[in-house]
Amino acid sequence: MLRIEAATRRVVVGPRNALGETRIALAELNWLGPPLRAGESLPVAAKLRSAQPPVPATLHPGAAVGSAGGDADLVLAAPSGGVAPGQAAVLYDGERVLGGGWIRRREAVAA
In angstroms, rounded to a whole number, what is the distance separating the alpha carbons of residues 89 and 54? Predict the structure, then answer.
């Protein structure tokens, strides 16, 4: 399934390779690592499912990221399948946990 269009009651399907995500929106970011500022980017390893190994990514924090929460964009170095809103993304520097957030749904983009 590529997307759900609730207003028209449609489910859009496509080939498996179309499911790969490279840009993931994170909400309620809980950050344990060094302070982040909006506009900076940070290379991280991102674990998107508990049974999958971490993958290389770059974190782009939004405004007001800190231990109390915030939003960020996570850009993966290669497409990853099975990314779904509501899942957790845990971010690492080697074996050290830097933080994590909840994957949120991106606003629908008109085709």
Answer: 10
Number of domains composing the chain: 1
Q: What is the pLDDT along the chain (111 residues), one digit of tens a residue?
A: 667 888 999 988 777 665 667 899 999 989 898 887 777 899 999 999 888 899 999 999 886 555 456 888 999 999 887 788 899 999 999 999 999 999 998 653 333
> Kind of pairing, strands 3-5 and 10-12?
antiparallel
CA distances (Å), 10 to each of 4, 13, 20, 25, in order? 6, 10, 20, 23
- The whole model's pTM is what? 0.76
Q: What is the per-residue DSSP string for 66-82?
A: BTTB--EEEEEEEEES-
Residue 90, token pair as written in the block: 């845990």
For residue 59, give the CATH number of its domain. Answer: 2.40.30.10
Kindly report each contact of residues 14-19 with a partner whose C-beta sits within 8 Å and lies 24 or more positions away, as own/partner: 16/81, 19/81, 19/82
